[in-house]
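Minimal example, chain plus magnesium ion.
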Amino acid sequence: MKIAMLARNANLYSHRRLVEAAEARGHTLDILNTTRCTVNIASHRPTVSYNGETINGFDAVIPRIGASITQYGLAILRQFEMSGVWPLNESVAIGRSRDKLRSMQILAKHGLGLPLTAYANDPKQAEELIKAVNGPPVVIKLLEGTQGIGVVLAETMSSAKSVIEAFRGANVNILVQEFIKEAGGTDIRALVIGGKVVAAMKRTGAPDDFRSNLHRGGSAEVIKITPEERSTAVRAAKRMGLNVCGVDMLRSNHGPVIMEVNSSPGLEGIETATGKDVAGMIIKCIEDNARSGKTKTKGAG
Ligand SMILES: Nc1ncnc2c1ncn2[C@@H]1O[C@H](COP(=O)(O)OP(=O)(O)OP(=O)(O)O)[C@@H](O)[C@H]1O
Ligand SMILES: [Mg+2]
Ligand SMILES: [Mg+2]
């Protein structure tokens, strides 16, 4: 097969591994710098150009769109879908997953466990928000944050109120969440490919941090997840419409609660912790599913 990957940095571990895995299985994988792709909307046949030349002949596209260029990257991916190229994850599904509030609304609608979460636009309602999630303490997070940046633990009413007011003053959208203390600074990342959990790891934050993100100095190890955690991850992936994703959960007193679903999960942490060939499994998922013209929405929605 001829596979394209929308990515900006060819040297990232995840991207290098996907190229390696594709080639090992007899395919070609071309990395296209997302920001150098352009769409040609005027033509009858929707096309994508790269460095000024129309590209075609790809059987599948792997979107690895950075959070800072979500809108542009999704426009390019939609154009691939419209031209009949099978996307590993669809643009519509990625769009949902990039908005934490929207994701949580979808997951809640289907009865999946979530931390108590509140959202409001008006900082005057700060106290109400904090009480709505049985705090303080509360966790306050940016709606479109990533790598743990913009996730704050506020332990008292006054600190929670000032953090909420500061974020709102800076005109950014935030969620206020129940603090799952019993998780003890540890979260679980379950990697779902094609409706199955293929690998899982436990991430523990640096000793002085409640956030377990590897980018914030956390460490990862392999973990055996419970059947309830497994089915939670699989159902979340299904409801979000993602073929490949990382489902992040906390172990709460009332069972697994989902923090978020990542549509471009990093491979380094999970492959190192579990010793599994996750990149190879992603390429296999493409082999099993990619069919020309079978792009589900074909750009709709
Ligand atoms: N409600 C909560 N209770 C306890 N700990 C939490 C809560 N929410 C987040 N955390 C901790 O903070 C970390 C970062 O939170 P979250 O994953 O929501 O942010 P992010 O910036 O989107 O990170 P990512 O890079 O994984 O996308 C989590 O991995 C978890 O360890
Ligand atoms: Mg995130
Ligand atoms: Mg996270």
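The chain has a mean pLDDT of 93. The longest helix spans residues 227-240.
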